[in-house]
Amino acid sequence: MRLLHTSDWHLGRAFHRVSLLNAQAEFLAYLVEVVREHAVDAVLVAGDVYDRAVPPLAAVELFDDALHRLAELRVPTVMISGNHDSARRLGVGAGLIERAGIHLRTDPARSATPVLLSDRHGEVAFYGLPYLEPALVKDEFAVDRPSHEAVLGAAMDRVRADLAQRPPGTRSVALAHAFVTGGEASDSERDITVGGVAAVPAGVFAGVDYTALGHLHGSQTINDRVRYAGSPLAYSFSEAGHRKSMWLVDLAADGAVTAERIDCPVPRPLARIRGTLAELLADPRLTAHEGAWVEATLTDRVRPAEPMARLGERFPGTLSLVFAPERAPDDPEVSYARRLAGRDDQQIAEDFVAHVRGTGPDEAERVVLRDAFDTARADDALHEVVR
């Protein structure tokens, strides 16, 4: 069975206030052509269909058009909700849409209810695990302490239990939206940290032939059976080095997996350039970036006059301007930035406690801080659901 694994469409998202709707429409049209040209048997969409819980009408229309095109090809699509989606809104009408071969999985309670598709070698069970916000699904999965590993592990236990009751030789595919250990993040994914830990081990997905992951925006292979498709478009300058693609996966009769990358259309390249304003305006090596979307980091010790306008004369696609003046190593601003670099909210809060009273928090106080951050994130997630 041939599968096309994609994820993180983020329909409705802009890039530094530049609309990407045309680029997203181009991608979806391209996806349909790939399905047709490569004789794809099923499309897998591993979450973050939309960029926010209440997407703009134009994004909903794009989604609707894509579903109609796939349905016309009579190619089944299995799709889960991600952490940017409103699961309840995305799942409206799922029962009716399923009759057209579009299988939406947005309800955590149905994680172990597979979509069954067949080829000449027998059935393949597709298990759609929507994004599982630990604080919101801990009761459903009866876990003692809400964490990503705990709820995903419990959901996969149900999947394996269901699969064990299937006829011998039934192949299996899981779709999940999570941060799996070994994955490389970018700046455009929303933080899903809980208890100071966001990542789950790839071993959570043991027992299925292929796991189609969403959430991280870079296409990457965790192992031969666990992969991220990544986003089809770049949504931050941290993705300037990404090769945007989808996975074309062949699932053999014995469950063996082979995969190749199918490159996505690039509407406009990204470039990150750095130097003084005078250097950026004169450097001939930057000629190749004059047609790109540009993030410019200025290292001038004194902020120059009208830098955006002057950069725009050479690089009309300049969207982001960052000031990083070159400073002496003992400059207070440099040392403060270094102290914060790479530190999460929990560590910064613990440092603040130590700074204020002279000693860091004890273990009980660390738990209080961790619970406070988890509650704040859960409240934010609940607000997205309510919206």
TrEMBL record:
- Any Pfam family the entry gives: SbcD_C
One Gene Ontology MF term: 3'-5' exonuclease activity
GO BP annotations, alphabetical order: DNA recombination; DNA replication
CDD domains linked to this entry = MPP_Mre11_N (cd00840)
Please give the InterPro entries that the UniProt record associates with this protein: Calcineurin-like_PHP, DNA_Repair-Maintenance_Comp, Metallo-depent_PP-like, Mre11_N, SbcD, SbcD_C
Q: Which domain of life is it from?
A: Bacteria
Alphabetically ordered keywords of this record: DNA recombination, DNA replication, Endonuclease, Exonuclease, Hydrolase, Nuclease
Q: Where is the Calcineurin-like phosphoesterase domain?
A: 1-217
Has the keyword tRNA-binding been applied to this entry? no
Show where the Nuclease SbcCD subunit D C-terminal domain sits.
267-355
Q: Which PANTHER family match?
A: COMPONENT OF ATP-DEPENDENT DSDNA EXONUCLEASE, NUCLEASE SBCCD SUBUNIT D
Role according to the record: SbcCD cleaves DNA hairpin structures. These structures can inhibit DNA replication and are intermediates in certain DNA recombination reactions. The complex acts as a 3'->5' double strand exonuclease that can open hairpins. It also has a 5' single-strand endonuclease activity.
Quaternary structure per UniProt? Heterodimer of SbcC and SbcD.
**Family (UniProt):** Belongs to the SbcD family.
Name by which UniProt lists this protein: Nuclease SbcCD subunit D
Organism annotation: Streptomyces sulfonofaciens
Q: What gene is this protein translated from?
A: sbcD
